[in-house]
What does this fold into?
Amino acid sequence: MQPNPSKLPTHPPHHKTLKFSNMTQSFISLPQELQLATSAHVKYIQSLDSRKDEYDYWLTEHLRLNGLYWGLTALHLLGHPEALPRAETIDFVLSCQHENGGFGAAPGHDAHMLSTVSAVQILAMVDAFDDLETRGRGKAQVGKYIASLQNRQTGTFAGDEWGEEDTRFLYGAFNALSLLGLLHLVDVDKAVDHIAACANFDGGYGVSPGAESHSGQIFTCVAALTIAGRKDLIDVDRLGRWLSERQIAGGGLNGRPEKKEDVCYSWWVLSSLEMIGKTHWIDKEKLTNFILSSQDTDKGGISDRPGDMVDVWHTCFGIAGLSLLDYPGLEPVDEVYCMPKSTIKRVLGR
Amino acid sequence: MADQGGSNHGIARTSRTRTEEQRQKDLERIKDYRALEDQVRHHAAKNDYSPDVFALTSKLLRLNPEYYTVWNVRRRCLISGLLSKPSPGSSPSKALPTSSPTATTTTSSADFSSSLSTETPPALESQTTGKSGTTAEDEDEEQKQQTRQQDQQNDQQILEKELHFTIPLLLESPKCYWIWSYRLWILKQVIERLPVPVARNIWEEELGLTSKMLLRDQRNFHAWGYRRHVVEQLESPELEGKSLVESEFEFTTKKISQNLSNFSAWHSRSKLIPRLLDERNANDEARKAFFEEELNKIGEAINVGPDDQSLWYYHQFLMLNLVNSAENPIIAPAFTQEERVAYLRREIESIQELLEDYDDAKLIYEALFDYTLYLCQLQERKPNEQEEKDLKGWLGNLKKLDPMRSGRWADLERDFGLKE
It folds into this structure.
């Protein structure tokens, strides 16, 4: 049989065991690993809470609520929001809440900004702010907890009562508070001043003033500035240049100069580029292929780079990245909140 | 960030990646781990932060240094009993916990079994004799002082033990935010509780730690950030500090000499320069000399490694000083227009010479493109005919050598009217 390139399939094959032994088939269809293995990823995410016989499951309990946010976001973007049971999700989230309104990573874990933000994001996605009012401590209490973590002198945010400071927490605060409609509880201008102090000559932002530019921090700072309506402070050309330089030979993005490419930077870098309108400064196709090559198409999940172990964090950010890249069949993602655009529209009305 | 587990997926596949023996071993480990956890939680829920609980946290944290709640339990053990109570009138210790999972009040009063340091005897009766005319108040004061001294010795031991405890954890997980943050918290306690010379000593050792960590991984941004913080504290009045900017600048020089391609070190260097020059009270002459020295230094490095991004970023930092200095006076604000133009032209020329040996290094073309535009910006004019020809040519090379960023090259072409 002659290979006929014009007979390319119009939809990706769904069966899991695409065989390559047939030369003809491999000629006319895309390799499996360069398509999104949606159902495998859905199953992977669903399986995460059932791995209680794995030591690692218990070692990562301090990330449970965050993990739920990553998994749920991925599911929503994959078009399968129902894949995790809504009632149980809400129950679990509320069981992590403390009297002071903050959330811990899991029941019995201390309240922390990171888990609190994840909690708010999850509740927003499953449309459960009412449950927060009736069965939880209420939005106001959550807002109070978050606001209490701001240092009013410097504008910075701590992660918890013990004082660690990081622009991640500032972004988290803005993210959660704006979703709750409570951004006015904090001193936004002071926080914005702090972000400005974290800016570097290369256009990027660091963990704290003086720190080198880092893609993760750039995302948090640029997103926070966007929420605060202060994108005017960004040196768009210079930052765009720095971000575009994150794409390296394999097509993936790294986090800072001379580092390895990593799928999660498909989110941090790409969303930052999106926020400043420079997404076209990288090669989207190559990045798409890089993310797709990092899938485990058999068992589901995405890893940091091809061939590595998968995890839910990279699964979330890989899929979010693909959504930003307009990969077909995915729900649009909001580049500021890393949540479905539909959720943001419902909650913020925009 | 922690890995959420391997590629197990459904019952059938589990056995493929683990033997039954391995699985049983895992179940044992889980059992022990959870038992330990339950113990800690059980005590914490009752606000029991006794030394026994403290010992349990040591065990648990060695198994899982990312377990941030257990670090918090450990902190509460220290505050609630192992460390001395602040005496009335002295500075209060760190803010008390406000988010205990069950109780609304937190630190329990001091009814604990004696602290770890059995070497420190309980407060002695004051035995001051010999001073004629000592009043009861003087004796009281002396007793207070003695107690305070004993407290400080006790605290010092405990805090140094804590620093010691975190070292192996840090070496194994050098990017774990929780460990760095706990260490920093201990060091804050050091400042609050110990006499200044002792505190200073400990913080200086901390500087040594960051150097070690940066030897292992020169790009560890946790270590760089931590170092900046340590330096800031060492310079502060609380530690009777003076400026460390010279030695820190020297540190970046050392790091760069160990490895030119050290973006973190070059970045740190750029951040130190403004203060360095200010503290040297550098006049215009000195600033000019400094600028030229930096330019030469980076020039030499680029000659050896024209493909190295870190070097070009630093070079650009220096060039921006020539162009932007109205807004950000950093190195040599007093440069005249002629001097700036001269420097730019000189750099553009020497970079062009690089092309003879490295005609496919895209960073060279990018630098030439940028700096030619800087020159025009400086002289407030549009590119002349030759320059326009050059710019188009360099852009053409960039499009060829770096197709991934073709979107950017297209924008530059459009923005500067350089379409062929």
Chain B touches chain A through 66 residues (CB under 8 Å).
